[in-house]
Design a protein that fits this description.
Growth Hormone, Chain: A
């Protein structure tokens, strides 16, 4: 297909850069802990390393609007390759200075944000609006396959060859990603970005906020994403470990199967979306939101009532639900992303996605703090149930007309059945 011929280079580049980007968060903590021998310093390191990229995300989103997104993506991934090469040379000559590692981590996080935002807008430029859901589904498969393989392969390479060799491999991957980006065809590659109206950063930032606040459909999905991030994004950090390890005493060595099961569901869902591109999943998004939370409620209910059974019976059931959860989650995420890509004007998309990412990065830690506190009082499973009941309530309010018509349809159908009887 014509679209595939344009997008394939972006897909290949993303696979390389996503894989490299997923390796560092897994291996870096191991190296920092080995270097500092202190969990306190390790925690401080990652707080310092991640904070600048989070705070600068809105500014990055506004800044990159002045440039062609292909050029921004190429520049970002090339800088990441250079940073990894410099870090490799420093490690090779025996420089393990803590401050250098912090600077390296900060810069990698910042340019990774720049690459992510420019790639999102570039994706919208390359894909026709009618095919956004289909190719977002394919992108979801490839991204998750890359991220899925990264932790295992990264830790194996780290264990066998050491951190410096791993950094060199990442540098090579980023260089390859940069080369592939150069082949991405663009109709407007040589055109300058229109800057007839020069606006300050503050003005651009206000325009982005104004757009979100005045476009009701955009604001609704924006707030729904924040609600989901607050109430259920803590599953991996709080509720899943609280249920599986703390309550059912499943060995931590097989706890990773929960993430594997979820990832399998994600991959199946991406394939399903790609093969059924004629289905307009966006029309069913309110039902999918509710279904997503119902599956999480079932996990919590199963945890409450199956405590008397063998722990591995519950764990097997949970893995099944996690596959289902991964499947439905992508059926929600892909239409929402496609909706934003089709409804948000291209000239402000980077600042929009930057604001979305910034808000999520602020709300998720708050959600983890709230969920962890509540789970310590009433249990992880009961907290899981309660949080998802609240999400369903929020969805019903946000999609009140859809919810009302859905229940009216059910009642009408029951009335017809009674008449027939």
């Amino acid at each position: 297909e014509f679209t595939l011929s344009k997008i394939k280079y972006l897909f290949i580049s993303r696979c390389l850069s996503e894989f490299a980007g997923a390796v560092l968060p897994v291996v870096f903590p191991l190296f920092i802990l080995k270097t500092t021998h202190s969990l306190r310093l390790s925690g401080l390191f990652f707080m310092i390393a991640m904070l600048p990229s989070v705070l600068l995300t809105p500014a990055i989103g506004v800044w990159i609007e002045k440039y062609i997104k292909k050029q921004v993506a190429f520049f970002s991934v090339l800088v990441l390759a250079i940073l990894c090469s410099i870090e490799f040379l420093l490690l090779t000559v025996g420089v393990y200075d803590f401050s250098y590692l912090v600077i390296f981590a900060i810069l990698v996080a910042i340019f990774s944000v720049m690459l992510d935002l420019s790639s999102k807008v570039l994706f919208t430029e390359l894909v026709d609006e009618t095919e956004l859901e289909k190719y977002n589904g394919i992108k979801s498969i490839l991204d998750n396959l890359s991220v899925f393989a990264a932790p295992m392969l990264g830790t194996v390479v780290y264990g066998l060859l050491g951190f410096s060799s791993l950094i060199l491999i990442l540098a090579v991957l980023y260089i390859l990603a940069a080369i592939v980006i150069a082949f991405i065809p663009l109709d407007n590659e040589d055109k300058e970005i229109d800057q007839t109206v020069e606006e300050s950063f503050i003005q651009k930032f206000k325009i982005g906020l104004h757009f979100i606040s005045t476009e009701k459909s955009i604001l609704k999905y924006f707030l729904l994403i924040m609600a989901l991030n607050f109430f259920v994004a803590s599953s991996e950090e709080v509720t899943n470990p609280g249920i599986v390890i703390q309550k059912y005493h499943i060995p931590s060595s097989i706890f990773g199967l929960v993430s594997v099961a979820f990832s399998l569901g994600v991959i199946f869902s991406g394939l399903f979306i790609a093969k059924n591109s004629k289905i307009k999943f966006r029309k069913h998004i309110s039902k999918l939101f509710i279904l997503n939370s119902l599956v999480m409620i079932l996990i919590g209910v199963a945890s409450v009532f199956l405590i008397q059974l063998n722990a591995f019976i519950f764990f097997s059931l949970m893995l099944f639900f996690e596959v289902l959860l991964g499947f439905i989650t992508i059926l929600v995420n892909v239409p929402m992303t496609s909706f934003f890509q089709s409804q948000v004007p291209l000239d402000i998309q980077s600042r929009f996605f930057a604001l979305l990412s910034f808000s999520a990065n602020l709300i998720v830690p708050l959600g983890i703090l709230y969920t962890g506190f509540l789970a310590s009082i009433i249990g992880a499973d009961v907290t899981y149930i309660l949080n998802n009941i609240l999400v369903i309530c929020i969805v019903c309010i946000a999609f009140w007309k859809d919810t009302k018509s859905m229940f009216s349809g059910i009642l009408l159908e029951k009335g017809r059945e009674k008449d027939d009887y």
